[in-house]
Amino acid sequence: MSTAAPRATGQDHLWSVDEHLEDILATVRPLEPIELNLLDAQGCVLVDDITVPVSLPPFDNSSMDGYAVRVADVAGASEEFPAVLDVIGDVAAGQAGLLHVGPGQAARIMTGAPLPPGAEAVVPVEWTDGGLGEGPVAGMRARSLAPEAAGGQVRVHRPCEARAHVRAQGSDVKAGDRALDAGTILGPPQIALLAAIGRGTVRVRPRPRVVVMSTGSELVQPDEELAPGRIYDSNSFALTAAARDAGAIAYRVGAVADDAETLRTAIDDQLVRADLMVTTGGVSVGAYDVVKEALSHVGDEDEPGSGVEFRKLAMQPGKPQGFGSIGPDHTPLLALPGNPVSAYVSFELFVRPAIRTLMGLTDVHRPAARATLTADRPLTSPKARRQFLRGAYADGTVTPVGGAGSHLIAALARANALIVVPEDVTSVAPGDDVEVILLG
């Protein structure tokens, strides 16, 4: 959670992208660990190293449906001269009181069942006559339909080596091995491993609860009638989806009208379920920039140590930004611009790292790569601004998608990367090497 308000400076100061991100990450702290049931811990970050208490598998077991045999008894077996063995019974998965396989004997065994004492290997049922006295079979008859198959004789048509089709005890992990490292995000495979070693609960940092709120009296919800001068609210959907993609539990709030008191009330109402709040719109210099109006003086005497600062950043798109903390718990708040591309780029640069920091991760950034620019003409960039252009990246090359306009949602939907043009570069030519931030 937030522990300090952002540093203040002159109103006309132009902040760099790196300075702004540094201040955000210095303000945000990982959430406190909690103990959760396995399925509730999905998507959370593991706090402690996990050591294996019991080997996997815990005992030698069969990897096939077939017959547990001694290797010497099936040496030289063929379809013309099969090895004939006495079947002494069945070994099913989970069965206790194992049979002992002696010379000239076999035990019918199922996949996952413990290898009985005396047996050295498993021959698949397809290598046998299944006890029918004929040629090779495709499978076993159900025990309920043919209980006699657990006895009698079986003809084995192929030899096998020692330990064939046997999963050795500890062949997956051994007792005392480290199963998972602290900092691991728990997905389905990790949940499976924890369950397999007998862990029903685990200590994790919870997934951050992120509340996303867009502002603007012009915004209409999808599926509603679009009156003149109105537009559909896409930001709250995009950023809620992006927050979930980053690992958060995200809540979308319907668009708030351009009224400062209404916005303050809406934010206060949402603080109870927020580890991080994200607003879009109303952070520039217009007469109706309600977020700036509503939050510029939050904190002060009522909430010492909290407050929201609004800044101009040396970037395009996304120049106007705000961040700080609000409420009695000093909940971090990031105020993003309202243009859709500006909002999304700002989310990737600032909000996503904040979410990943709350989760307790150390690597909080999207992966970056170098790519060769393919374009019809040079790309221009404003001086002293770090520009982020949408691009399609593949096989070490990147192609711009759409123009530089911060309203081009369709272009954003076709992009899988951001092309980064540094502050000291005003033109990038086709064939130049550029940095790209990979979005997917």
List keywords for this structure.
single chain; 440 residues; alpha/beta; 7-stranded mixed sheet; 8 helices; 29% strand; elongated
What's the overall geometry? elongated
Average pLDDT figure: 91
Helix content: 10-25%
Q: What is the strand arrangement across the widest sheet?
A: 1-19-21-22-18-14-17
Unreliable stretches: 1-5
Query: What is Rg?
Result: 32 Å
Give the structural class.
Answer: alpha/beta
Beta-strand percent range:
25-35%
User: What's the β-strand tally?
Assistant: 29
Could you give the distance between the termini? 27 Å
Largest sheet properties = 7 strands, mixed
Number of helices in the DSSP assignment: 8
Short description:
The chain is an alpha/beta fold and 440 residues long. It is built from eight helices and 29 strands.
How would you describe this protein?
α1 (17-27) packs parallel to α7 and α4 (235-246) packs parallel to α7 (340-358). A hairpin with a 2-residue loop joins β25 (386-394) and β26 (397-400). The protein has a seven-stranded mixed β-sheet with strand order 1-19-21-22-18-14-17, sandwiched between helices. Strands 9-6-8-7-10 form a five-stranded mixed β-sheet. A five-stranded mixed β-barrel has the order 23-26-25-27-29. The chain contains eight helices and 29 strands. The chain has 440 residues and is of the alpha/beta class.
